[in-house]
Design goal:
- By secondary structure, this protein is an alpha+beta fold.
- It has helices at residues 13-23, 31-37, 68-73, 103-112, 117-138, 153-168, 198-203, 221-230, 290-301, 334-344, 387-393, 397-420; strands at residues 2-6, 44-52, 57-65, 101-102, 146-147, 173-176, 179-180, 185-188, 191-194, 209-210, 233-234, 241-250, 261-269, 273-285, 306-315, 321-329, 351-360, 362-367, 370-377, 380-385.
- The chain has a seven-stranded mixed beta sheet with strand order 2-3-12-13-1-6-11. A four-stranded antiparallel beta sheet has the order 15-16-14-17, with helices on one face. A three-stranded antiparallel beta sheet has the order 18-19-20.
- A hairpin with a 2-residue loop joins strand 18 and strand 19 (370-377).
- Helix 5 (117-138) crosses helix 6 (153-168), helix 5 crosses helix 8 and helix 9 runs antiparallel to helix 10 (334-344).
- 33% of the residues are buried.
C-alpha cells in the first residue's frame, strides 16, 4: 500500500491524526489502549470529531490536557470509570500537568511504558529527531533539551498516537506533495520567533517546499518531526495504482482563502510489483575494433551481477563513430563490473549511478516443451514465448508467430485457472 499526504493547509500533529483516522476510522479503537500504556488515560482527552466547514467534510481532533477535576469526572475515558487505572501511576509521576518536559523524561516514560515495541520505537525516533533539532537550534546537547510546547501532555499524546497509526500501516510506502513554507512570526516560550520555526526548518531539510504566499505556521515542529520519521518520497504514484481510500484532516488554524486541511490518499497496486535498485554503468568506445569489442562485451555479460548489456552506435567527439555501452548490474557487484569494463574494453572512465526500478511479478511455465514468461501488468497478464524455443521448432516467421500466439493463450489459460484455485 502507498499512503500519499497532500498538505493543502500544512501539517501538524493533530492534522496528521485526523487525516489518517478519517481514512482508517477503525484505528481509533486503539487510542485508549495507547494512552493507558503511557499512563495518560487520566491526563489527556483525545477524540475524533466529524467536521464540516460548509464546503469540505472530514475529521478534526480534540486533543487536550485534562485538569484534575476533569480526570476525576471521567470525561477522559468516554464514559468509563476514571479509577479503572492501568497501574502506571507510580511510573509516570515525573510527567506533570505543565507545558514543558525534558527529552530525558519523555524517553524514560516511553521506555517504561507498555507500548508495543514498534509503536514505542517510532515514538522514540520522532522525539529524538525533535530533540536533535532543538539542541542544534539552542546549542545544547540532545540529552539536555527541554521541550516547551512539544513537552506538553497533549503534544506527547499527539506524537505517541501518531506512532501508533504509522505502525498500524505496516510496511506501507509514504509519499507527499510539496510543503507550504508559511511566513510571519509566532509567540512561543522562547519569545517571538520567525516562521517557519527554527527547529521546524532543520527537520524539513531535504524535503520539497514552496511559498504559496499565505502567512502563518503551516508546518508545526510536531508535524515536521512526524514527516522526518516517515522519510516520504516526493510525489504521488509513479505507476498505475488503485485509489482505495481517502481522508481529510482539519487543523484548528484558519488561513484566508485556504482550507486548512491535510489529505491522505491510500493506493493499492493493480499488479504485484517489486521495488529494488540497480546500478547503471555507461561509457563510449571509439578506438577498439568491432571484433574485439564484441568479444569483450560477451565477457562482461558473463560477470556475476550483470543483468543486461546494451550497445548502440553514436557519434562521439571529432565526429568519430563510436559505440555507447550501457550495463545494468546489481549494486553489490559494482567493483566486479567496473573491473570487467576496464579489462575488456579500451575505456578510460566509466560513469555509474544507482537508480530505483519497479519489477512486475512474473512466473515461468513450460507449455508443450516451450518456455513461457507470464507478467502481471496493471491492465492484465501478458505471456511471451521464449524465441529460442520457437526458433528450434519453426523455420519461418509465419510458423513462429502462429505458434507463439497459441502457446501464449494456453499459458494464460493455465495461469488463470491456477489463480482461481
Amino acid at each position: 500500500m502507498r499512503l500519499h499526504l497532500d498538505p493543502v493547509g500544512g501539517v501538524s500533529g493533530d492534522m496528521f491524526l485526523a487525516a489518517v483516522l478519517d481514512t482508517f476510522p477503525e484505528l481509533e479503537a486503539g487510542f485508549q489502549t495507547v494512552l493507558r500504556a503511557i499512563g495518560f488515560e487520566q491526563k489527556v482527552h483525545v477524540q475524533r470529531n466529524d467536521f464540516d466547514n460548509s464546503i469540505l467534510t472530514g475529521s478534526q481532533m480534540d486533543v487536550r490536557e485534562l485538569k484534575p477535576a476533569d480526570a476525576r469526572s471521567g470525561v477522559h475515558d468516554h464514559g468509563h470509570a476514571a479509577d479503572g487505572g492501568s497501574g502506571h501511576g507510580d511510573h509516570h509521576d515525573h510527567i506533570h500537568h505543565h507545558s514543558h518536559c525534558s527529552y530525558a523524561d519523555i524517553r524514560a516514560l516511553l521506555n517504561r511504558s507498555d507500548l508495543p515495541t514498534g509503536v514505542r520505537d517510532r515514538a522514540l525516533d520522532i522525539f529524538h529527531r525533535l530533540a536533535c533539532a532543538e539542541g542544534e537550534v539552542h546549542g545544547v546537547a540532545t540529552d539536555e533539551v527541554t521541550f516547551h510546547e512539544v513537552g506538553a501532555v497533549d503534544s506527547i499524546a499527539d506524537i505517541t498516537l501518531a506512532a501508533y497509526l504509522i505502525d498500524a500501516m505496516g510496511d506501507a510506502d509514504w509519499s507527499m506533495a510539496a510543503l507550504p513554507m508559511g511566513a510571519g512570526r509566532i509567540n512561543s516560550q522562547h519569545g517571538i520567533l520567525p516562521l517557519p520555526a527554527p527547529a521546524t526548518l532543520l527537520l524539513l531539510r531535504g524535503m520539497p517546499v514552496f511559498d504559496d504566499g499565505i502567512n502563518g505556521e503551516r508546518v508545526t515542529p510536531t508535524g515536521a518531526a512526524i514527516l522526518s520519521h516517515l522519510e516520504p518520497e516526493f510525489g504521488g504514484p509513479q505507476t498505475a495504482m488503485r485509489l482505495s481510500r481517502s481522508g481529510t484532516g482539519f487543523g484548528k488554524a484558519q488561513f484566508p482563502g485556504l482550507h486548512n486541511v491535510l489529505r491522505v490518499f491510500a493506493f493499492e497496486p493493480t499488479a504485484q510489483q517489486q521495488r529494488d535498485q540497480v546500478t547503471v554503468f555507461e561509457f563510449e568506445i571509439d578506438d577498439q575494433t568491432p571484433e574485439d569489442l564484441a568479444a569483450g562485451i560477451e565477457q562482461i555479460r558473463e560477470v556475476p551481477g550483470v543483468l543486461d548489456v546494451l550497445v548502440s552506435a553514436v557519434t562521439a567527439k571529432k565526429n568519430r563513430q563510436a559505440q555507447a555501452v550501457r550495463i545494468l548490474g546489481a549494486p553489490d557487484a559494482t567493483v566486479r563490473i567496473l573491473d570487467a569494463c576496464f579489462c575488456q574494453t579500451t575505456t578510460l572512465g566509466v560513469r555509474y549511478h544507482d537508480v530505483a526500478r519497479r519489477v512486475l511479478e512474473r512466473q515461468f511455465m513450460q507449455v508443450e516443451g516451450a518456455g513461457v514468461k507470464i507478467a502481471s501488468r496493471p491492465n492484465g497478464d501478458t505471456a511471451k514465448v521464449e524465441m529460442d524455443d520457437l526458433g528450434r521448432r519453426n523455420r519461418d516467421h509465419a510458423g513462429r508467430a502462429r505458434e507463439a500466439g497459441e502457446l501464449a493463450q494456453e499459458a494464460l489459460a493455465r495461469a488463470s485457472k491456477g489463480a482461481m484455485k
